Amino acid sequence: MTVKRRVLIVGAVLSMASLTSFAQYPGQTKEAIKINTCIPLKAAAFDYTDVQLLESLFKRAMEVDQHWLKEADVNRFLHNFRITAGIKTTAQAFGGWEGLDCELRGHSLGHFLSALALMYAATGDEQYCIKGEELVKGLAECQQAISTSGYLSAFPEHFIDRAIAGGDVVWAPWYTLHKMYAGMLDQYLLCKNQQAYEVLMKMCDWAYRKLKPLPYEDLQRMLLAEFGGMPEVFYNIYAVTGDVRHKKLGDLFYHSGILNTLAARKDSLAGIHANTQIPKIVGEARRYELTGRKESRDIATFFWNTVVSDHSYVTGGNSDKEVFSKPRELSENLSENTTETCNTYNMLKLTRHLFTWDAFPEYADYYERALYNHILSSQDPASGGVTYYHTLHPGSAKAFHYPFRDNTCCVGTGYENHAKYEEAIYYKTADGQGLYVNLFIPSVLNWKDKGIAVRQETTYPDEAFTKLTITTVPTGGIQIPVLLRYPSWAVNGVTVKVNGKKQPVKKFPGSYIRINRLWQQNDVITMEMPMSLHIEYMPDNKNKGAILYGPIVLAAELGKKTDSKENPPVPALKGNPAKITKWLKPVEGNPLTFHTDKGTGQPEEVTLSPLFRNSDQHYTVYFDFK
Known about the structure:
- It is built from 18 helices and 22 strands.
- Strand 7 (443-447) and strand 8 form a beta hairpin.
- It has 626 residues and is an alpha+beta fold.
- The longest helix is centred in the first third of the chain and has 21 residues, at 126-146.
- The strands form four sheets. Strands 15, 16, 17, 18, 19, 20, 21 and 22 form an eight-stranded antiparallel β-sheet that branches.
- Helix 8 (194-211) packs across helix 11 (244-252).
- It has helices at 3-15, 57-71, 74-85, 107-123, 126-146, 158-165, 173-191, 194-211, 216-222, 230-241, 244-252, 256-263, 274-291, 294-310, 341-358, 361-375, 409-417, 580-583; strands spanning 43-45, 51-53, 386-387, 400-401, 426-429, 435-437, 443-447, 452-457, 465-472, 478-486, 495-498, 501-502, 511-519, 523-528, 533-538, 541-549, 552-560, 584-586, 594-596, 607-610, 617-620, 622-624.
């Protein structure tokens, strides 16, 4: 680290009152923010820096993402901003959604700022902060050159004026600005970048002057266009600054046409753009945490339950052609364009908030389902490309979009998705005295407040077993309850041992097993949770379903991807679904892989393997059972 950088960091730390991490989810560095969570909680999040991944599927996916973050050319990301600011630039322009003829240009830089900050928090590698500093410095220069108002974007301010006027339709300018606000906030909180804070405050001042004088009707007309997570980020900024103007900005983005209907517990989602709505609900969740507004809680919980129960596919993803279907009418909505990846990115954000409120195990079950079968599955481990639509159309294949070329919204969220896999493995109980273990991912938790470290070792999901070792404890030991998630899919029971001694398990699938004792250094907890094959049927067609092994969605391998636009035929499966183990057998030596047994009357042999491992095959997830 250079002397200059040391000085920058010291100055930032002093100016931020020892701020060390991200303050988005309840529990993260409460002491560093001015407006604390004011609602009753059941769980609290750890800081990103408290958890490090060990070798696993997730760490390898993170390393693929790291390649793109390291290779990125700062000047290419700044190119459109400099053009808008009138600053000379010779960088090669991006294409796709970052082209100068695209009204959404600039969103990728915001995602990239967040991803760099998240990756720094996950790894401690200074190069991610250094690259973030270069970007923020360039953006500060653009902000100063554009005007004295604080406006900063890769497109001119009249795009915002057009959105307010409502007649001359413009493609989602506030959506794009949200990524910049969020990226600057992440740089400030995670990388301790004081300049990012200064730029962000000027951006907030501009937004307040722009929006505060507008009448209600103008604001609601403006909100008809997609605006991303603007309310969420303004509430997050309010938590950090304590400036009531920032809370007011969040309130101004309340879209009553959508949110009032949800507050009345009415599902009117059919036919509307899915990912336009989900960030609005995340904003209401954050509003509830900071203000205690009960209606915001009702909106968030009703929406989550409605989408997960009535609008989601087996992977945890939702939407077809980017819109919600009619409730529970999914079987005829299996096009090439199902389950936009950005939707699941945002649903997992919402799930994290809701878990801290109630610690319901179904939130953790959903998180696991969507994490493995959509988010992890969305990345091509060879190229680093990511899916926009995570297709569930029978016989289709994943189509990948790429950084620096396509620059779609899901490339942007892809930068972030694979930089924060450590974020929901562990939670504290709300009183700070107990530990939730929600995900079975190899990792090390350093619980600084308690002076303990927990190491989780597992090959899950290849083997349904995990081992937790208390590697560090204070002198004399420590008394805390450990709450192990008893997955809802573990219908054959679980076996829990402490230091090799079997423990009584009186709980049931979809609950938590509580072990409360005086823990000593090198105490070991093990849990075996046998998986089983089962079928999850479409809610509107009991003859169409998907096969899972535990929480893992299995996909039939239908041949390598080719340039042909035609999909291969999809086999039907014969046999009694209730006796699936009679006609679907494990492939020896190949974990999580099965094949149909022709001896049981199957018309052809079919191999099924995890959807998250399929990147170069045509496949089907849903079958017609005969």
